[in-house]
Structures are given as structure tokens and as C-alpha cells.
Records
---
Amino acid sequence: MPLVSMDKQRTLPTAPTIPQVTIQHSGELESVKRYITLGVALKILEHDIKVVEASNMKLPRLYKSLLRGLQDYVLLEIAALRKQLRKAGIQIYNECKDASGIRAEYVCRGYRHRFSLHWGFIRTEAERLIKQHLPR
């Protein structure tokens, strides 16, 4: 005699569904790229200020003050972006520069990520970011 009657169907319990977790959003990657690029833009402005100081321009104080104003805007944006990255749980833990560009490694919600930016892209993007802060 069978233990379970054949006229009743047994259903096995189903496994609970696991929600899909997005490891990283495209906006987060863009924020990290922007942060890296703004750091390069800041160094470019520092270099240009030194060049203006060492040159025989007719209005060096004017050009220096313009460059310092741009530098202030970039610093403010870096600070805001750093706060935004911290709030999103993103930490950049390695930045390596070589002949081809910059490689960055970072943690986003416990997952490690890395990317590379070529110098041509960095130069173009840094110039675009600096232009955004020019007075109109």
C-alpha cells in the first residue's frame, strides 16, 4: 500500500526568487571618470599658472587670476563629486599613470571595478570640463 495516494498531486516548494542586483550603474562609472578627469584638469591649471608666472606677459596677474578662478571652480566640483561618490559607497583606491593613460581601480558597493582612460580622451575631456567653468 503506497504512503501517498496517487490521485493527489504533490508540488515541490519553489526556490525564493532572488532580485537582480545591479552591480554598477553607468552614472556611477561616469562619476568616477569625471572625478579622475577633474584631477587631471586641476594639474593642467596648476601647470598653466606656473607658466604664466614664468613668462614675460604684459598682464600676468590678470591671467593668473583667471586661471585661479577656474581652479577654484574645479576644486569645488571635485569636493562635491567626492561627497557624491562617498554617499554612493564608491571608493577609488588605486590610480596608476603610464604612457598610454590612467588606470583606475575602485570599489562600488563591495565589488571591485577598473577602467583605463587614454591620454587623448583625458586631454579632450579635461579641456571640455574647464571650458564649462569659463565666464560667458
---
Amino acid sequence: MRRIFKWQLTAIMAALLWAGIASEAQAQKKLWGMLKHNDSIMTARYRSSDIDTMYITRPKTKWTFIGRLNVSGAKVEVEGVQQGNPFHSEMTADYKSTLSLGVSYLGLSLNMALNPAKLMGKYKDFEINLNSYSNRWGFDFIYQNAKNFKGWHEMGEEPRIELPPEVLTLKTLNVNAYYAFNYRRFSYPAAFTQSYIQRHSAGSFLLAFSGQGQRADTKATYESVLKVTNIGIGAGYGYNWVPARNWLLHISALPTFIVYSHTSLRVNEERIPLKYHFPEVIITSRGAIVKQFGNMFVGTSMVFNFTNIGNEEQLAVHNIKWRTRLFVGFRL
């Protein structure tokens, strides 16, 4: 009896073990089937873009890996007349350099950036750069909180005064967006994110929107606070030139005229009225060069923002913000 019971117990345990293995295999098979189904849906959506494939195409691969070196800078120029004396100031921020790695699967991207100078305590400013480019529309979002500006100030016949760091604290938000009319043949992503490939040259007229918010606090022999809010609309043009196989050169310009402006200036305890002076503009320019080697690619790109507000006979402020990028990547 004991032997029979022992065999029955062994059989039951073996049956349970086999059932567990079969159940686990079935669950894995079901999960793999769901993943394949979702992948096929994502692939179909990725390939079904509304484009003219004679001019632009999707890469044949699903994975894209990119390494980038990003360098950005900012500059502020102020000029005007105070108590009958012309003045001119120029302040430049330290360059910001970051290294980033990105991976994209069927258009879904994940990026990680590292600022070596900030890790070593040499760069204390704060900056965020967000961008999204598609064939039809796209935007750049840039926020900077900087105290490392240094430069000089001149007034009338007085000698130039050197301005050390932390005299100026600048908080700036820049937003610009575009809409491309010829999005079926002209591709911004081909130049900036490499999620498309431009096969033949094409250009497009662009609608543009720009917004800027800024606060500048100056503490020198005087104290001042300048607050600026601008909204602009306009139009521009972009062109992708394919001079030879696997080459792409991009250039675009999007000037916008400021249609809403609110500016206030306080120097010490005195408030100085500032009036809108036409034309006040925000200009966004972009450029890129891309070279492909099979499934590998290298290139460089740049985004340049320029803002001009005010009147030199009273007070004019010129803001320059730029970012350049070197990148190398491959597709799988």
C-alpha cells in the first residue's frame, strides 16, 4: 500500500509540475502574441504617413540610436538714451555644453542628457530645451535661468565699465512653432531628428508663431527690473536641398511680427514708460547638414532666435539665443 501511495503522490506532483510548465508556456505565448500584435499596429501607423514617397520616406529599420553634443549660448544687448546721454550695454552668457544619447523605436523616443560642467560645479545656470518636429508642424520650447552673464556698459563720453558675472539675472522663456504647407514633400524631421529621409529637394511655405517672456534683474551702481511679454505671428520658408545621394542641406527662416507686447521697466524706484515701436520682431532660423552612410549618419544642426523690441531713442533690447548640435547615429 505504501508503494502504491508513493507512486500516486509522485504522479500527482509530476502532473502539477507539467501543468505549471504548460500554463507558463501558454502565458508566455499569449504575451508574445500581444507584443507582436501591438508591434504590427505600431509599424502600420509608422509606415502609413501621409507623404509623397518620391520625396520623403521612412527608414526601413525600426530602431534609431543617436549620440549628440549640444552647445548653446545667449546674448543681450541694450541701447537707448538716458537723461540725454546715449548708452549701450552688452552681456553674454557662458556656453552650455551637454552630451546626450537617444533611442527611438518606430517614432517613440527616449533621450538622456548629461552636463559635465554642471556635475563639476562649474555651471550653475538652469536651462531646458524641448523640441518636437513633424512634417506638418513642430515647436521649440526653451527656458533659461542664467546668472553667469558678463560684459560691459558705456554711457556718453564716460569710459567703458566692465560688468562681472551675477550683475544680471535673466529668466527667459522662448516658444516658437511652425506649420508646413508642403508637408507631403518637405520634411523638418529629415534634417533634425532623422525619423524621415529626404530623397529629393523640396521646400515649403511656413506659418509661424512665437512667444517670449522675460525678466531681467540688474544690480550694479543701480538696480533695475525689466519685464517683457511678446507674442508674434508671421510666415517664412524652409528648403531641403539634396545635392547628391545621401546628402541633405536644410535652411529655414521664420520671421514673426509682434502683435501683442507688454513691457515694463523700473530703475531704482522710478518707473519708465515704454511704448510699442513698429517693427518689433522675433526671428527663428534653422540650418542643418546630414550625411548618410548606409544605416549610419552624421551631421550638424543649429537653431537661432533673435528678438528686437523697443526704440533706440528711448530703450531697445536685442535678445539672441542659439543652439548648435553635432550628432552621429545608426539604424537597426
